[in-house]
Every structure is written in structure tokens, then in C-alpha cells.
Design a protein that fits this description.
Helix content: under 10%
Order of helices and strands: EEEEEEEEEE
Structural class: mainly beta
Number of strands: 10
Number of helices: 0
Radius of gyration: 21 Å
Length: 121
């Protein structure tokens, strides 16, 4: 099962449990995010092609990471007393895809993990 989604001006092929880097949104790690611009849905022999979007299809994902690495840009001309140093952090959101849903489908309910009692010594 996979889907083709659009985010910004780019298209991504996503599958359950895959990770995709999309444009920045104001979210926190651990939050769920819903992507609704689904261009194609494919599962087994069933293929839905949107014109331009597949009606009601959506992707549920969980935010795993936000921008953390800063890229340093340095310009230098020898013997000219010319030095420039700039930093840049490209905003992005890394999302782990949980579910690919067609129109009318609901994500499966995840059972909470049973708590294990602490051993008493």
C-alpha cells in the first residue's frame, strides 16, 4: 500500500511506517498531523487516481523531528581583510507515516500497552 501526496510544490511517495521530510508547520514532536492532498492511492489491485485529488483520502502521521542542525556559510578572501560568516537553519518537519486512509475510513484504535507491575524486593 502506498500513496502519492503533495506538500507545497513537491510530491512524495509514502507508505505506512515510512518517514518523509515536509515543509515546516507549527507543531511539536509527538503530535499527529493529517495530510489531505492525496493525488494517488494504491492498495493491492485497487488504485484510485485523483483528478486532481482523491476525495476524502488522507494520511495520518506523527511528527518525529524538527530542525536542529545549523549550516554555517563562510566567505573568505585572503589578504583582503574580508570575512563573512552566516548561519542558516532550513525549517522542515520530519513525519513518520502511521496510516493511509480512503474516504470514510477511520484509523484503527491502538490498544494501550498494559502496565507491568514494579518488582518488589
Amino acid at each position: 500500500m502506498y500513496a502519492i501526496i503533495e506538500d507545497g510544490s513537491r510530491q512524495y511517495r509514502v507508505e505506512p511506517n515510512s518517514t518523509v521530510v515536509i515543509d515546516y508547520r507549527d507543531v511539536l514532536p509527538g503530535q499527529q498531523i493529517e495530510l489531505t492532498k492525496v493525488l494517488l492511492y494504491q492498495s493491492g489491485a485497487e488504485t484510485l487516481i485523483g483528478q486532481p485529488l482523491v476525495e476524502g483520502a488522507r494520511i495520518i502521521g506523527e511528527v518525529t523531528e524538527l530542525p536542529t542542525k545549523k549550516t554555517m556559510i563562510q566567505k573568505f578572501r585572503r589578504r583582503k581583510n574580508y570575512r563573512r560568516l552566516k548561519g542558516h537553519t532550513q525549517p522542515f518537519v520530519r513525519v513518520k507515516i502511521k496510516h493511509i486512509l480512503k474516504a470514510g475510513e477511520q484509523p484503527p484504535v491502538e490498544a494501550p500497552e498494559p502496565e507491568t507491575p514494579a518488582p518488589t524486593a
